[in-house]
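Q: Could you write out the predicted structure for this multi-component system? I'm mainly interested in how the pieces pack against one another.
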Amino acid sequence: MPALTFNNVSKTFGDNTVIKAFNADIHDGEFLVLLGPSGCGKSTLLRMIAGLSDITSGDLLFDGDVANDWEPKQRGVAFVFQTYALYPHMTVRENIAFPLVMDAFRKWYHLPVVNIIARHRLMKRQDIAERTLKMARQLELEPLLDRRPASLSGGQRQRVALARALVRNPSLYLLDEPLSNLDAKLRTQMRSEISALHHKVGKTFVYVTHDQVEAMTMASRIIIMDKGVVQQVDTPDNVYDNPANTFVARFIGSPPMNLIPASLRADGLRLSGEIAVDHAAPLPGRREATFGIRPEKLELKAEGEGRLPARVAVVERLGAETVVGCRLVTARGHAEELLIEHDLVFVRVSGNPKMQIGETCSLDYRAEDVLWFDIDNGQRLS
Amino acid sequence: MPFKKLTLKLLRYLLIGVLVVLAGFPVYWMATTALSLNSELYGSGQVIWPQVQNLPELWRELGQVPIGLWLFNTLLIAAGGTVLSLTLGSLAGYALSRFRFHGRGLVGFLLFMTQVVPEALILVPLYAMFITFGLLNSLTGLVLANVGFSLPVACFVLKGAMDAVPYEIEESAIIDNCPRFGVLTMIILPLIMPSIAAAAVVAFFAGWNEFLFASTFLMDRENWPASVGLASFVGQYETPMSAVMGAALVFSIPAIVFFLLIQRKIVAGLTAGAVKG
């Protein structure tokens, strides 16, 4: 199985740099997720691994060999496209068997008309027919083998695309947002199926998504990207608990991490410039920083009992838990204009706390749950 | 069935009937004329109904000319032009659709320009070229001359269809170890069958109806296509109208059969994409 290494890989389209000096290692057998908002360059990166897009500068190494100019065939990868890219004029059986048939093709089989005869003969070859059937059974596609893609549902098409990728037994699987066209229920089901498949085949998977839930539930490691730049490479737990910067802090988690500007004054620490808090941990060596805390680390308390006075603005009841959006109350009133990006501080509480919009309350936290970020560049402060 | 619905249905059928009569009457009149005697056509006047008893007379008149050979020549010219146009047109269309290269726009422009130049304008230079290359009085030369006009049309039609085929399908085939030529023949061409059928119709009928080049470049009566043969019926003092119409009827039958064979594909092409797939 190949280990992949990116050495300062960049990609530009005209004047537009999509990927800037990308450095990363992808280990054998891991499930690596490329996560980021739309347009961050993650699909371009996947296409560069597959050999479908050229690398502008830098090196891509397959097991230590520079593979920048390798043809897709040399790389031995399987690719599942976002749109599935099934061959509409072929049956499910023909779609799944196509990579095997192509592997068995000789040069002169590609002549028009000859290729039709050759394809039909190869489809009947025992090893190809057996492997196709085995893969169809594995993904529960056997009853659909003689149907064309147009008559299949989204989930079935997605399974056909997966079957076609898996049937060749490649060493590296590349998946480009394969679940984005499915409904929520099917997406959850397919998520588990792909994870199970990874465990079963034990090959390297590189999976592109903009959905953090997919990334958190499936990945062994996540590479978070923004505007063509890697923001953090780490395990899902570490990405959530120890985000490298405010972008990761806000991108991972729903609702995202609360980020509040904080400053150290002569009379103590102040949040949002107004709220004086009795904080045990002083700001690490600077006068201003961003105070970050996950919604589930905040405690919702009655008015006057917590360190941060607040007023309820949004209540989202999700059944087992409730997400309460609060505005911090300062001496001048609401401090929403001073909060970074969003004007609400979210608290996740279990059950239904029966809060009403407009109700005053207070928020509290443990000092060790607070993460500090540079107020200018957003980088995590150690 | 409510009265209003019934009336609308009747009106619809009436309109279709009128259109069928309008389209079919020339063919019917051609058959009636073919089965009339020349004495009737130039004397007492044509009978409206086909006179089947005159069939042996028509058969005798058509037997005097090599109409079978002419039809075969026409078929060679039309089929040869169609095959060549579709083969080269699909290769050129694929290159223009998928590859970015210097002069791509210029190639497209030059192909388009061939449709702007009237055939009659290039007749003389083409004649000189044919003499140089020894293509005069040969069916091969005529096929090449026709392809010069039908190839750009085929190329544009096929390029347009290939543009609509998603890149991902092609890339997927490349990942599956299919070489470029295989991608074209096994993936792209089957997906654009309706457009291939449309281009085939254009190329086939351009060759089938060709007259100007054929009457100029082909001297021997044995090499004539049916269009030139038909024109040869017209004499200075006499034109056997029934034989002309009879030959024209025979001439049109293979073309109609070809169109009927291919029309389902074209209709499928016209309706493709009308609904979300």
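A: Regarding packing and overall arrangement: The radius of gyration of chain B is 24 Å.
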